[in-house]
């Protein structure tokens, strides 16, 4: 057993878990943050994507112990002051979710994608970047639309701020 | 009509919780004292169990108990059942072999559960499960349904000689044979419909809680129909009396059919909770999902279609062998029969049809309904045959279809169904225009210049939805009625709760059902809550499958609303000293027509509950319930056109355009309908291009992970071009038909028709992998 401390959604948290505990299980079981999901056992589906020190990671493919001392953002930490993040808002506006199970991973992947590509994102790039996230409900059509819309809006907002 | 009423593109009420990580799925549930279960599963496709020794496992850290099938049997827990009786053509009933929730004597597929380990953590339960010693005597296995029917093959169940479950027929075989003999042309084809794994992204899970104080059971489960789960677990499996069993299906992460059925795990976890005295939670991992979730399709068919000299279809003869897997799952028998052969007329006026269906046991996981359930198999068979016939007859695919379209309604087919409304040519024309069919030749020539083979294919599908008129399905063998129920409760301040027996697992009922209420009463959508998925909150229900929630579930809400409105008008009329026939409900206000007198909705509601001034004899309160039993199936139909480019060097197919033109009748929320079509098409393209369950000859599942089973990813698919036309359904109060399955039904033949057009070889089976397409293209050269 190991005691692990990290910052999750801006708050320092600690928990005791077995050495073999994956980050996703630490987040779900120890911290009770059940928005991060487990959809497969081979690191393929991306339902468990979180941000660790500013980068998107599949939290099923990393031990909780490896994340000790890092700063993790989960889906619960994305909206600020009750206001949806632009990517969350775009998923809602463009019906980019149905059953909602892959959604947390999709949204966290999309935020990271937009941070890296900005408003230069095009459909082909979005589709290529979503290679590690599986959705069975939407056929990706509206997810792609939502991400492009969010990228446009966030890029526009950034330009306006500069 | 308010802005949030019927027909509006209302953003979903449920989205906020899903987008912020606040969804409540079964695996998210946690109760005090809860322990974790892992199942010990058979590694053999077929074996007898000589003994089970859990001594070492019980002694491992954190283990509460290990239970097996002998204890389950001793406690009187019943067999899993199939709920739809089918009789063979000789009159004998289907041969239902025993399916124990935990196998105690024989295992019949890899993944068959034999024991449950309950421990403090999943990891400890998993460790202990590996220490359970099961002494298996392996038996020969058979996985191919055609082979399983032959003499001398391994036998799965003593009841079913040659593994034949039933040999069933529908239609007039003699008339079909006469038409075939007299035909000007006969098109013959062999059709394989590949086996699929439904793969909702949320794996199945269950939490069983036994309360010894009240002798009461609670079952959280990933179900599309919690009331049906309660019924079956109490009436047939003897887990708990119905009045002592609460089933809750909270947020459910997709179903596609695979979460209709009651699986061994729900039963065993409830039972284990009583045996161990602790709440027991089990969550499937993805490998288990591939091994144990009911699969779909898996048909082998031959088809003969007869034409007269005017290219009109005169008869259709179909012979199908359907793989049911190792046991008969809950609805397995109706999928390849009444959900399949009854749709073999398609959109065409066919005077004579005969279908013979043999269903077969094999050493594979049970096969049951998967998105479309029988109707994709019928459509694939028919639309591949139509395309093949058009090529043989030298006609354009559209021309052959136009020649044979049904054009007047109602239309009685020779295979039970009575189509109520439709305009097939409208969908065909819309799809051809959207696909720029006429510009295809130029695009093909351009592609050839780049060394690519371009093809185009169409598919005109019909399906039967809105399952289903209870008396009709009862006469065909269904063990249940397929009505739906609803309650509409007007709270004291006029806000509304709707309790529905439909279950949303992605379809957006919390929004669309609220739109109906908002439309009828003119109330803001935020004042309307939709409650579903809990047998303690919702009176009764048959759940969601077969695109039935709009046509049946929402019709039940409409019927309850009729009663609510009638009573509200009585109260308002009394308050305003008017005649109730003069009261109209508009924009959340009850008005006396033609006057300036009005009572706001909330004031009427308050009056209903204060009961200080009600009409004489009227009960206080405002809450009404209704059961709605549909008069007929509904018949969504449409035309799909797919355009592909095949790289002849690699065989890789790229879907360059996909057009869908559907007729779903009236539409409640076009945004949600489009989403349903997108998702269905993706699953259909998955079936046609990528997905296929494969067992090896010994019964080991070769495709048990996302590394081995090719799920459609974003970069496998294009954006889709979708549109709808509307012939309202005349048989339900809303005029809706259902849209959940169309995409998966209509798309596979369009895609295979396009690829075979591109490569000039009609011999191609699904999934059309690059290897197969390359080989077929080579063979055509």
From TrEMBL, chain A:
Residues 2-78 form the 2Fe-2S ferredoxin-type domain. The keyword Heme does not apply. InterPro entries: 2Fe-2S-bd, 2Fe-2S-bd_dom_sf, 2Fe-2S_ferredoxin-like_sf, 2Fe-2S_ferredoxin-type, Beta-grasp_dom_sf, Diverse_Oxidoreductases. The keyword Oxidoreductase applies. It is an enzyme of class 1 (oxidoreductase). PANTHER family: OXIDOREDUCTASE WITH IRON-SULFUR SUBUNIT. This is Carbon-monoxide dehydrogenase small subunit. The lineage of its organism: Bacteria, Pseudomonadati, Pseudomonadota, Alphaproteobacteria, Hyphomicrobiales.
UniProtKB/TrEMBL annotation, chain B:
Pfam families: Ald_Xan_dh_C (PF01315), MoCoBD_1 (PF02738), MoCoBD_2 (PF20256). Transmembrane segments: none annotated. SUPFAM superfamilies: CO dehydrogenase molybdoprotein N-domain-like (SSF54665), Molybdenum cofactor-binding domain (SSF56003). Keywords: Molybdenum, Oxidoreductase. It comes from the Bacteria. Gene3D superfamilies: Aldehyde oxidase/xanthine dehydrogenase, a/b hammerhead, Aldehyde oxidase/xanthine dehydrogenase, molybdopterin binding domain. InterPro entries: Ald_Oxase/Xan_DH_a/b, Ald_Oxase/Xan_DH_a/b_sf, Ald_Oxase/xanthine_DH-like, AldOxase/xan_DH_MoCoBD1, AldOxase/xan_DH_MoCoBD2, AldOxase/xan_DH_Mopterin-bd_sf. The keyword Oxidoreductase applies. GO terms for molecular function: iron ion binding; oxidoreductase activity. Residues 20-140 form the Aldehyde oxidase/xanthine dehydrogenase a/b hammerhead domain. The keyword Nucleus does not apply. This is Molybdopterin-dependent oxidoreductase. It comes from Rhizobium fredii (Sinorhizobium fredii).
